[in-house]
């Protein structure tokens, strides 16, 4: 009986959370809930990631939210994800996924630098990353950067290195010239709680100082699935489960990098 109560409770929470997301996507109340004060409206945004599929696995709530508010989105991917020798395939998959996420292919840049190759234990130099990001900011007139935090969601060293590259950039950038936001990593229970995590994310954002953390609900969850499905070389059973059960499919909390 106790297990039945637990299962029913989880199902009710799951359904209620999905209803909340659907309701916000169909109404103007999203602005009131997130209360971003126009912080992310109509900006030239650069998403800095480490591998093809990072954008679809972790950042789709942010990308959908920004696209719906008139932002001009660019993606800078620091590698082709060639750890298994499928770099060229994964590169093309990212182009296809970007179309699903309303990012023009011409605004997606994928690097294949000899010193920035995919792999656990392959450390990337923060100065090199900073230099590359700075050049992309200048070329695309970027005024807002979004990337991983210092844990990088999964703890992958390349994710963490990208974060350090952005931080290094900010050290040598004049205040106000460019704004940078990091995707907050959560603990494993929240990470795999699916849409239920939206409640904790909203509460967490409210506890921070106004304007420092913003909670962005995914207005188009199906688009997230469609985008990840373009990464056919990676679309194996456990990643399908990840996209369905990961909280990052349904909500992103962004924290301003100071």
Describe the structure.
The protein is α/β, with parallel strands linked by helices and 258 residues long. It has a single domain (39-256), classed as Rossmann fold (3-Layer(aba) Sandwich), CATH 3.40.50.10320. Helix content is 47%, strand content 14%. It is built from eleven helices and seven strands. The protein has a seven-stranded mixed sheet with strand order 3-2-1-4-5-7-6, sandwiched between helices. Helix 5 (87-100) links the parallel strand 2 (72-77) and strand 3 (108-110). Helix 5 packs antiparallel against helix 10 and helix 6 packs across helix 7. Residues 26-35 have low confidence and may be disordered. Belongs to the PIGL family. One of its GO terms (biological process) is GPI anchor biosynthetic process. Its EC number is 3.5.1.89.
How are the SSEs placed, and which strands pair?
Elements: H1 2-26, H2 29-34, E1 44-49, H3 54-58, H4 60-68, E2 72-77, H5 87-100, E3 108-110, H6 126-140, E4 144-148, H7 157-171, E5 179-183, H8 188-191, H9 197-207, E6 213-217, H10 221-229, H11 237-245, E7 251-256
Parallel strand pairs: 1-2, 1-4, 2-3, 4-5
Antiparallel strand pairs: 5-7, 6-7
Helix pairs in contact: 5-10, 6-7
GO biological process, one term: GPI anchor biosynthetic process
Family: Belongs to the PIGL family.
Pfam families: PIG-L
Give the structure's gist in a few sentences.
GO terms for molecular function: N-acetylglucosaminylphosphatidylinositol deacetylase activity. The chain has 258 residues and is an alpha/beta fold. The chain is built from 11 helices and 7 strands.
Identify the quaternary structure here: single chain
Distance between the termini: 50 Å
Based on helices, strands and strand pairing, what is the structural class? alpha/beta
Q: Determine the number of helices (DSSP H or I, runs of at least 4 residues).
A: 11
EC number: 3.5.1.89
Enzyme class: hydrolase
InterPro entries: GlcNAc_PI_deacetylase-related, LmbE-like_dom_sf
GO molecular function: N-acetylglucosaminylphosphatidylinositol deacetylase activity
């Amino acid at each position: 009986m106790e297990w039945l109560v637990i299962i029913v409770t989880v199902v009710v929470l799951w359904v209620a959370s999905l209803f909340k997301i659907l309701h916000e996507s169909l109404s103007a109340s999203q602005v009131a809930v997130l209360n971003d004060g126009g912080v992310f409206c109509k900006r030239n945004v650069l998403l800095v990631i480490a591998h093809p599929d990072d954008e679809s696995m972790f950042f789709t709530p942010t990308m959908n939210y920004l696209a719906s508010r008139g932002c001009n989105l660019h993606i800078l991917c620091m590698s082709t994800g060639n750890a298994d020798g499928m770099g060229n395939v994964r590169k093309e998959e990212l182009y296809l996924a970007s179309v699903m996420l309303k990012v023009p292919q011409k605004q997606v840049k994928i690097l294949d630098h000899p010193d920035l190759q995919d792999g656990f234990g392959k450390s990337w130099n923060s100065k090199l990353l900073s230099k590359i990001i700075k050049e992309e900011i200048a070329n695309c007139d970027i005024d807002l950067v979004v990337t991983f935090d210092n844990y990088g969601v999964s703890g992958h060293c390349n994710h963490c290195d990208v974060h350090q590259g952005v931080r290094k950039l900010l050290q040598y950038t004049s205040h106000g010239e460019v704004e940078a936001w990091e995707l907050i990593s959560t603990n494993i229970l929240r990470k795999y709680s699916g849409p239920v995590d939206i409640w904790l994310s909203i509460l967490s954002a409210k506890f921070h100082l106004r304007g420092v953390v913003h909670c962005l609900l995914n207005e188009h969850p199906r688009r997230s699935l469609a985008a990840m499905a373009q990464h056919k070389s990676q679309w194996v059973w456990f990643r399908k489960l990840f996209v369905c059960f990961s909280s990052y499919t349904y909500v992103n909390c962004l924290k301003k990098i100071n």
